[in-house]
Amino acid sequence: METRNRRWILWGLLVLGAVFLSGCGARLDSVLQINPDGSGERTITATVSADDQEQYLKGNAAQLDEMFTSSTPEQLEYLGMSDAAEGAKVYSFKMTFANLEEYTDKVTRLLAAGGNRNPVEIEMQIDDSVFRKGLTYVDNVNNVGLMNWAAQAVHDSDVLGEQKENVSVNDLSEEGRTHVRLGEKEYDPYYGAARIQEVDDLGATSVQVATTGAETGEFHRTITYELPREHYIVDEAGFDEFFSSVTPEDGTLTPAGSTGTTWVLDFTSDDPADIVSWTNAALMSEETQFAVESRPAEGEGQLARELRVVDYFDCAAVCHRNGVVSGTIELPEPWYQRGGSSPSTEPITYVKPVQATSVAARVTVAESNPSLTMTYAFEAADVAGLEDAAARALSLSDTSDVTLSDEDGRTVFTVEYEAENPQAYTSHLGERFGALRMDVQEVGSTLFQRRTMSEVSFTAPGYDLIGGPVDLTIEFAGLGEIDQQSSSLPPGATVDGNVVTLTASGVAVSTCSCWPSGRSGSASRWWRA
To answer: Residue 222's closest CA among 337, 329, 348?
Structure first.
């Protein structure tokens, strides 16, 4: 029994001796000072107690001072050794940085110098606006990791003497606290990796960005902010100054009023760069993109124009963390959207079918050389780049002639077709367009009189390219005048001698013309198909 107790006492002494030999190592603390512009410095201190100096360094703390003077990595500046309470020695180091990118790079290299090559993750966001004030700082590093190069250097040197065999690299340091300051404000210190998220969020609960005029190039943008009253009253003067400062010289601002929550900002320009600049100011961003490309597009049986719009904006700086942002490109009919929505860095496609704004048709009914002439007028901007495709679509046959002319901002296509006789007219055009038919028949004659009957059916060719009514003229050439008493004409039709005029919707219109015996005139019978 006594022997067993002695064994336990001896084991306890051995454990106690190991703990004493391992010590606590240098305590590593740091202060991270961040400036409002994102630059700053991190000062790291290694505090070695008097006991550790005696145990590890045999009381010669200057050995470490000499080592750090010559071996500190270039990412750090060694500030030297100083005295602390109770005989402790403090070794100080400083890392400076101009921005987050440089800071991350130096931290990565410093960790690698100590054997840690894990990815470094550092987030630093400084908010100092009427919408948001405070600091977000998150990282995955600690002081021990940043100074592991020093612990390794000490362990690999001769300063530990005989103790080296009983001490590991991990025994030579311990994690202290890190203090973070933004300007004059200091946040609660922490151990290990950081997670500081202290932001007073006064952002808008929603921001809507609506843009008109993309089809004309005269862009008008409206930005609507929904700002809760409880956010606004925290800094009324600051919010008023913000909205006033982001209103362009020729823009307008509609304030929310004494109890409202909606601010509306409007501005107009024909330069996309202005839209980008003013939107960036209004959203406190540098990410806005706005570009419009107009181009012709051919679909099967259809001509069209496309607008490819890049419409992107970032609301992070002015929207509440739970805020909603939306964007719209508003276009008049017949424009329609083909997929995608704002905000997007990818082009959103809008399509407008190209149609003639006015159409006139003239049908000449004759026993020889009957003809059809179609005149289509398009807005020049709509049909630009589509002239060849439009000419192909409007052509009546391989033998028809198509000519173009410019008239007061319009592009006019004139299509002319002539056949040998009504049968050829019907054969060529009726086969392709169905309701384009013509027939002239002699139904009776005497020595002094001749009776004929003429039938005409008409549907405007290129119907898909017609956006309105058709002005239709039918002339009965060499067949006498129309006898209105014997005719049944469509509503709105007028007769002048041998010519009938009306405005048609493009559906088929048929006519029957005859010359009764004893007259040199004609009679016509019309009906809608």
So the answer is: 329
* Residue 365 to residue 371: CA distance in whole angstroms: 7
Q: pLDDT value at position 228?
A: 97
Detail the DSSP E strand segments found in 121-272: 122-128, 132-139, 173-182, 185-186, 190-191, 195-201, 204-212, 219-226, 252-254, 262-269
**How far is Cα 272 from Cα 308, in angstroms, rounded to an integer?**
14
Q: Which phi and psi (to 5°) does residue 366 adopt?
A: -155, 155
Between β-strands 319-330 and 204-212, what pairing exists: parallel, antiparallel or unpaired? parallel
Distance CA 109, CA 116 (A): 9
pTM: 0.68
DSSP annotation of 274 reads H
For 92-109, b where at least 16 C-beta lie within 10 A, e where not — what string? bbbbbbeebeebbebbbe
Within 50-194, residue ranges assigned H as helices are 50-57, 62-71, 100-113, 143-146, 148-156
First to last CA, the chain: 124
pLDDT along the chain (529 residues), means of 10: 41 36 76 97 97 84 93 96 95 98 98 95 95 95 96 87 78 95 94 94 97 96 98 96 97 96 98 98 97 82 87 95 94 90 94 91 91 94 89 85 91 95 91 82 68 76 82 84 70 84 68 41 38
Q: Which residue has the tokens 């010519």?
A: 499
CA dihedral 337, 338, 339, 340 (to 10 degrees): -50
How many Cα atoms occupy the beta-carbon half-sphere of 308 within 13 Å? 7
Spatial neighbors of 343 by CB under 8 A, at least 6 apart, are 209, 311, 312, 313, 314, 325, 327
Give 456's contacts (C-beta < 8 A, 6+ positions apart): 363, 365, 437, 438, 439, 474, 510, 511, 513
CA atoms within 13 A on the CB side of 372: 29
